[in-house]
Amino acid sequence: MAEQEKVSAVRGKAGSGAAVRSRAKANPWREIVWDVGLRIASIFTLLFVWWFLSLVFPPTLIPKPWETFVEVFNIVTTGAFFAEMGSTLRRVLVGFVFAMVVSIPLGILMGTLRSFESFFEPPVILGLTMPGLVWAVLMIMFFGLTETSAYAAVAVTIFPMLAISIWQGTKSIDKDLIDMSKAFHASPWSKVVDVILPQLISHILAAIRYGLGLAWKVVVVVEMFGFSNGVGYQVVRGFNVFSMKVVLAWTITFLVVMIIIEFGMIGWLERVVTRWRPRVEAWRR
Amino acid sequence: MAYVHVEQAVKSFPREDGTDMLVLDGVSFDTKENGNTCLLGPSGCGKSTLLNAISGLERLDQGRVEVVSNHSGFAALSAQLGYVFQDPRLLNWKRVEENLVFALKGMQVPQLQWEERIHKYLGLVGLLEFRKQYPLYLSGGMRQRVGLARALVIEPDILLMDEPFSKLDQLTARKLREDTLEICARLKQSALLVTHDVEEAAYMGDRIVIFSARPAHIVEVVENPFPPLARDLDDVRFIQFKKQLLQTVLNLVKEIEEVSP
Questions:
Q1: A187 contacts B106? CB cut-off 8 A
Q2: Which residues of A touch B136 (CB under 8 A)?
Q3: Cβ contact (<8 Å) for A184 and B89?
Q4: Which pTM does this prediction carry?
Q5: Interface test with A, best of B51, B78, B85, B89 (most A CBs within 10 A)
Q6: Which of A252, B16, B111, B206 is the most exposed place for a label (fewest CB within 10 A)?
Q7: Chain B residues close to A181, C-beta within 8 Å
Q8: CA distance B100 to A226
Q9: What percentage of chain B exceeds 70 in pLDDT?
Q10: Is B91–A277 a contact, with Cβ atoms under 8 angstroms apart?
Q11: At CA A235, angle to CA A233 and CA A237, rounded to 5?
Q12: What percent of chain A has pLDDT over 70?
């Protein structure tokens, strides 16, 4: 009798475990709804706070949310937004490409050769500590109000963090795998493409994410200084006519695009690139 | 058919204080041409170093290591060696079959043969249904099997294995040992296995080369009286053979303890 009790006790425990698991399985939608619901609630709370403040403050300081969104609608439907956003985006991309073309080889060299590491570490660290906005000012003073200064400002700002990422990534490459590739006589090309680069990709991706955030800011500042197109220019224009509404409208649309790029494109890229790694979600509540 | 000829191998490594640590002190032996050879010795005695010298990952200071095969002409210039490491050392971002392709590419096997070989050797290790899976989704034992398949897929003259079962749990290791023995017998594959486990050496080795502790020389070469597929771990006579082997190795350890103050 005691034996049976023990058995049923064990099964009971297992039974309740199974029940908990099946409960979670039966309601995956519950979790998703809860998660999305919380996010939407957060945004609505912000909107509510905004609306409330717009009642308290004069419209020149805090414009009404509705009016601002009407403005957003205008700038999007007239195509003005896409034109300006296009210019800003172009500046970010070109600067980015320049930075990557230099930082990837340099980072790999710094990670593999002591001499390169010692020589390039000071300028890279110095570059890192310079505020991006200071770079923007320097580049404009040097190149004038040309597209080049925008490209240069972006490139110089994000180059240090890309280089450091790749440099550290190269140093942390698994030597065992290099030995293995030697044992199987892999060609140098195969060693780089099949063994080294995949280990660097996650470092590169992290650096791109961080760099992108910074690049946007730098470009907008450069545009504020006196370009005649771009999102930064539009913000300054709004400032000059003291229209909070215009400033906020452009800022909001800009933010939305940025978020789409950050979470949509880069997030998607990250998921693709880390497909081979099992996700460790089990411990989160 | 091929075997490894080791002649007076000497190797030192520099210590931090500038002196040299002598690891291999004139090691000489030949592996068995049509079977499995085990290099048995205490940890740190240089067996892995010697294996690396055989595979070309390390250079000896003196002496020579030669893989002798009866290929003729061009093929004789480079005997093919397959390597199985202690840990799987797979490219985790590539699928199982892509890991095998990596080895096939490196050893310049013609692409037409790839599919057939992948199918055959993944089948032999029992992982054919996982060929499109990524390594991190497999268990440790399965990953080690992929490593074995990768070494076999290039159809090497000699299969080199460096303590390939030491990182696995007891049951998985036991199963994999059996399977490896069977696969090698079926393929008529010669293997060279480094181990510090006496039972493993007795079970897997047709010829057992016993290393002394560092600086290493060969203490004894033992031929296994039991044919490969007749080694029963529960057989009294096999256990007796194991005990003799163990005794030899234990005496080595005692010698070290007596010599060093």
A1: yes
A2: 276-278
A3: no
A4: 0.78
A5: B89
A6: B16
A7: 102, 106
A8: 58
A9: 93
A10: no
A11: 70
A12: 88
List, in order, residues 6 or more apart from A162 with CB less than 8 Å away.
Answer: A99, A100, A103, A104, A107, A204, A207, A208, A211
Closest chain A residue by Cα to residue B154: A184
Q: What's the average model confidence in pLDDT over A2-24?
A: 48
Tell me how long chain B is.
261
Contacts of A176 in chain B (CB under 8 A): 85, 87, 89
Distance from C-alpha of A108 to C-alpha of A166, rounded to nearest angstrom: 6
Interface test with B, best of A276, A277, A279, A280 (most B CBs within 10 A): A276
- Which ipTM value was assigned to this complex? 0.89
Q: Residue A235: exposed, middle, or buried by beta-carbon count in 10 A (0-12, 13-18, 19+)? A: buried
User: B57 CB near a chain A CB, below 8 Å?
Assistant: yes
Interface touch A184/B135, C-beta < 8 Å: no
Q: Is the pLDDT of residue B43 over 90?
A: no
Pairing of strands B20-30, B2-14: antiparallel
Token pair, residue A22, equals 């099946």
B132-170, pLDDT tens digit by residue?
999 999 999 999 999 999 999 999 999 999 999 999 999
Of the candidates A154, A136, A156, the one whose C-alpha atom is nearest the C-alpha of residue A145 is: A136
